[in-house]
Amino acid sequence: MSDGMTIDYDGLIPNNVGLNEDARVRKALETWHPGYTDWWKKMGPVGFQDALVYLRTAVGVGAEGWARFDYVKMPEYRWGILLAPQVEGRTIPFGAHKGEPVWQEVPGEHRAMLRRLLVIQGDTEPASVEQQRHLGATAPSQYDLRNLFQVNVEEGRHLWAMVYLLQKYFGRDGREEAEELLRRHSGDPDSPRMLGAFNERTPDWLSFFMFTFFTDRDGKMQLAALAQSGFDPLSRTCRFMLTEEAHHMFVGETGVQRIIQRTCEAMREAGIDDPTDVERVRALGVIDLPTIQRKVNLHFSLTLDLFGSEISTNAANVFNAGLKGRYREDRLTDDHQLLGDTYPVLRLEDGAIVCEDVPALSSLNMRLRDDFVADTEAGIARWNRVLERAGTEFRIRLPHVAFNRRIGEFAAVHADSDGTLLAADAWAARADSMLPTAEDYRFVNSLMKPVHERGAYAGWIAPPRIGIDNKPGDFEYVKIEA
Ligand SMILES: [Fe+2]
Ligand SMILES: [Fe+2]
After folding, report:
1. Separation of 212 CA from ligand 1 center, angstroms?
2. Distance 202 CA to ligand 2 centre (A)
3. What is the pLDDT of residue 270?
4. Is residue 149 within 8 Å of 470, Cβ to Cβ?
5. pLDDT of 51 above 70
6. 83 alpha carbon to ligand 1 midpoint, in Å?
């Protein structure tokens, strides 16, 4: 019998949910497994499938010592179903059912809503693996290659996490949705992934680091809100996913940080003071700071769209139902029902951006997005400390939330990165100074040459300060010829 803490690695599917005693779900998952393996081979990382990669695998779900590092061939990674331990006596923390015992089964009245939440979250997980599948060929080091693959296998495991919930709690509908999650593909014109940012390309490593910094952080915010759920299996699933997710944002934040650091070093060595002297900076084989800023503008705006419309009855319903809470709901001190409360929302009114108090229940997407922005700012501040130490005046800034939007209040207008509204012709004239250009992509792409020797790094990125699992600088993270 599973005690919920140790992971059973005996069967085909590692788990701490007692799969051995649950023949129906075990069979459903074992039936789904070959399709998943096919998907991984067809849509997962290109190449390196036979290489030994120094990966971490979860061995426990407690706070300490939950992972073990070892050489693994990616197709043999033990994707498992891992839930954080059950909290004794937990009650629904918010919404109309606040204070009632949490649900261990799907509440019938909220079944459709819950299924939709699981499918949307589930769809993003394999999507990012698909988006990143070509990056192995141009990795700037073994260290980075290993980090890419770690993120990829864990996104694969997150798909398993959602598929388990679908198959265990939604019967036949759940099995059908689980099949669909393997059938949709990122950027597929006939059957794309569900959300816009997950159909964009990730053509180079700067894009990869930006994606993990911004878009995986949306993942963190969504998981944090779902970790509050009154549907206890979802809460426990998301709590464990969050422990893995932290590494993905670490990869993004330190990746961009190392790029900035290398650019500053190269500029200093060459005696270039002006960061906007792009031609001279690029001639050094490093990525100029204005290009990094344009990439920030793009990835930030694409990621904001993932939060949905600022004002949303659907978000209110999901909260009221007790299915999805706010970021760190358990640390907030209001009544957790928000019936008479308001929340300030930026809106477009008569051609101007104004701040308006809106019923708090309808503005939960906005609130989660604000929490995301605050979390993002902290990372940007750390990038700016690198710039400050390097003695340059240049700073990375987040663009205004109205900039380059496809969804919500500002989808219908153009705004520059300061939030000034622009007519279409003014936007067309200035877009190239605010968003990455074809020339930017061409330049960044020209730097993407693989560096596979142990301990070596491409010239456009600084080595990390410490290795993964405290390994030394020349550690062999990927045995490439294996
Ligand atoms: Fe994920
Ligand atoms: Fe992630």
Report:
1. 10
2. 14
3. 98
4. no
5. yes
6. 14
Closest ligand to C-alpha of residue 155 is 1
pLDDT exceeds 90 at position 472: yes
Tell me the CA–centroid distance for residue 248 and ligand 2, in Å: 5
Q: How far is the CA of 385 from the centre of ligand 1 (A)?
A: 28
| CA of 279 relative to ligand 2 center, distance in Å | 35
Q: How far is the CA of 144 from the centre of ligand 1 (A)?
A: 18
- Give the HSE-up count for residue 259: Cα atoms under 13 Å, Cβ half-sphere: 28
DSSP letters for 191-242: S--SSGGGGS---SHHHHHHIIIIIHHHHHHHHHHHTT-SBHHHHHHHHHHH
Ligand nearest to the CA of 147: 2
The pTM score is 0.96
Identify the CA nearest to 327 among candidates 197, 253, 220.
220
Q: What is the mean pLDDT of residues 189-204?
A: 94
The ligand with the least distance to the CA atom of 150 is 2
| Average pLDDT rounded to a whole number, residues 238-247 | 93
Q: Which residues sit with Cβ closer than 5 angstroms to ligand 1, an ion?
A: 125, 155, 158, 219
**Smallest-distance ligand from the CA of 211:** 2
Residue 272: CB partners within 8 Å, gap ≥ 6?
280, 281, 284
CB atoms within 10 A of CB 286: 24
What's the rounded Cα separation, in Å, for the pair 298 and 290? 13
Residue 66 has pLDDT above 80, yes or no: no
The per-residue pLDDT of the chain, averaged, comes to: 95
pLDDT at residue 2, as a whole number: 47
Q: How far is the CA of 96 from the centre of ligand 2 (A)?
A: 31
Residue 41 tokens, joined:
């081979």
Convert 133-168 to b/e letters by CB count within 10 Å (16 or more is b). bebbebbbbbbbbbbbbbbbbbbbbbbbbbbbbbbb
Measured N-to-C along each axis, helices 232-270 and 111-131 cross at an angle, to the nearest 10 degrees, of: 30
Local confidence band at 58 (pLDDT 50, 70, 90 cut-offs): confident
Ligand nearest 226 Cα, by number? Answer: 1
The pair of structure tokens assigned to 251 is: 């990869």
Name the least confident of 222-236, 280-294, 447-461, 468-482.
468-482
Ligand nearest to the CA of 121: 1
Task: For residue 477, give the nearest of 26, 125, 189, 48 by alpha carbon.
Answer: 48
83 Cα–ligand 2 center, Å: 17
Q: Residue 56, SS3? A: strand
Ligand nearest to the CA of 158: 1
Which ligand places an atom closest to the C-alpha of 241? Answer: 1
